[in-house]
């Protein structure tokens, strides 16, 4: 890579071998950067690195690729798609100036939308490293990113939810039970999205058909997605399956994505295939991407960069393909990348900020695993902060417990809490549907109907009476045991 | 003025809770306003506490050693030697959680122990199988499942067509899956089967994972392993898990390989059989 960066203070000179190392040393502490050996070696070194980074002109990021242009198609995408006209208003700034500029009253929602295509992921990552949590919230809240398919995501004072009705054996009635629970709690306007337990084309098609039939029968203004590999979804489309959104996990280096088994051309093909189905009603954003700090390191494809910079580079991939939704699965990867509640919260706010600044419809899987030093209180904190920052959507799952993926994310109840305390509504199409279906008496106020909505009570009445079962016995046993 | 029904406890119940017959998901929890009712909140906390304890409770070396000794007396197929007590390079749980690389490597003292063990074993013929028990992310999974699974596996192997010569069992603290490759190599075993505590879920804190490697040696990746997951009475029960494990062990021995080229065809019926995409929501 390129030149070294030096910073002198009090007779001592600190040296950073290149821009990538400077970025890594300036990053707020987290376990994944420690694991990679790129973390600052002392708190003082981190503070100095942040001072040095603040003096770096934004222009340097266009000339000093952190991953070589020749080796990496994402670097080529970032450089080749950079828009000098959009960049013009900020081209004279350093990273430190850029923070001030973003926080200034001059940087309105319209101005931030104008400069979007001039901001590279590395610029966003760099400035985020010298921003406090409140800065990340304040600027993200000014960024407006609106996308649509059958519902509209990202309007002001709205918070959407992905209904995630996973089941460990993909049992159709088990999935339907979680879907019903979610719908009756007002969840699902971003997407109804299933992580399949059995990951193949036949199973994905079965799940797509099931969700499609439910969406049509109850006329729900939402979209479905099976979170299977992009090549599986392409095959589903070829076989005539009802595909609304194409899913893929993405990373910020070409090598990460190779390890995931796709490249940019695959995504382009998938977007075109899904668009050709013309299934959207109010918009045509057909892609759903998931990201998360640490994926590049776990694929050993991080090129010596810190994990947050790699994460921001994934947003260059996402924005090329006009997604309806992007989701940072922030606490899923485990404590070797984000150790505790503090690190998870910081990462969630960074990811949301960088994505919004770059123009993505960013949501967050506010989540943790049982081997991380985190609990529900940490998730309450992050959910409240992100909802304040204007996060596009969060997950919704029965009682926060994903019995398929074995981790905890936000519940249907959690989303209603956030809507209530912050006065947020679901997407306008879904809000109207919730009231028409008598699920909510006042969707804007998150007021649920105390009585079972008629359209769903008939489905429930058609069920054979259930006496007892192993699952409900287990639940009882838990209560008394 | 408070206007409320008599005996009102603040909770709106959900009549669809009975759909729990279809799923272990926490559906139909009811609500206080839009929030979780007290009883459900406390139940969740208990489940999380158990999952946390599963991660942080140390492996009960003495208890498992005693059980394995008793088991070896009942099952002549098992090596009668005392289990080997080993440790990874991760010195404690906090290190283990943040440094997966250290959990994959044996400590120097453990390497020496295994080398001595190998020198004492005068037979030059390799063992057919080394069983490795590692705490992984849930010592609770080991405590609940490891010995019971080995009992089922040993009796299934005793009546299989092959003769199996087993190495002494290894008990590893702060171990990850790949440490089995080190152990298998040092013990001169053709196959290693690692029994390891899986990442605990809120509703499944004691799930055991089984990882098989043919010709184990240091530096192999996951592509060389076969996995059997969710071994516990409420998941894949012990006799079923033993049947699957023996199938894979026999196939690995026959084909002299493991990993992506060794397919588990022990079940040729699909996981579940039901209508194409039907559910009660569409009824």
> Which CATH first-tier class of the domain at 147-448 in chain A would you pick?
Alpha Beta
Uncertain regions of chain A: pLDDT < 50 for 5+ in a row?
467-481
CATH-defined fold name of the domain at 147-448 in chain A: TIM Barrel
Helix content of chain B: 25-40%
| Rg measurement of chain B, Å | 23 Å
Give the biggest beta sheet of chain B.
6 strands, mixed
Return residue spans of chain B where pLDDT drops below 50 for at least 5 consecutive residues.
268-275
Question: Overall 3D geometry of chain A?
Answer: globular
Class of the domain at 60-255 in chain B in CATH?
Alpha Beta
* Gyration radius from CA atoms of chain A, angstroms: 22 Å
Q: What level of helicity do the residues of chain A show? A: 40-55%
Number of helices of chain B: 8
- The global form of chain B is elongated
Q: Separation of termini of chain A?
A: 60 Å
Notes on the structure:
The complex is a heterodimer of chains A (481) and B (283). With 481 residues, chain A is of the alpha/beta class. Chain A has 23 helices and 16 strands. Chain A has a domain of 302 residues: TIM Barrel (Alpha-Beta Barrel), CATH 3.20.20. Helices cover 46% and strands 12% of the residues of chain A. In chain A, the strands form 6 sheets. Chain A has a 4-stranded parallel sheet, with helices on one face. A 4-stranded parallel sheet of chain A has the order 8-9-10-11. Chain A has a two-stranded antiparallel sheet with strand order 1-2. In chain A, helix 1 crosses helix 3, helix 9 packs across helix 18 and helix 19 packs across helix 20. Chain B is of the alpha/beta class and 283 residues long. Chain B has a domain of 196 residues: Ethanolamine ammonia-lyase light chain (EutC) (Rossmann fold, 3-Layer(aba) Sandwich). Chain B is built from 8 helices and 6 strands; from the N terminus they run H-H-E-H-H-H-E-H-E-H-E-E-E-H. Chain B has a 6-stranded mixed sheet with strand order 1-3-2-4-5-6, with helices on both faces. In chain B, strand 2, helix 6 and strand 3 form a beta-alpha-beta unit. The longest helix of chain B has 20 residues. About 3% of the residues of chain B have low confidence. At the A-B interface, helix 2, helix 11, helix 12, strand 13 and strand 14 of A face helix 1 of B.
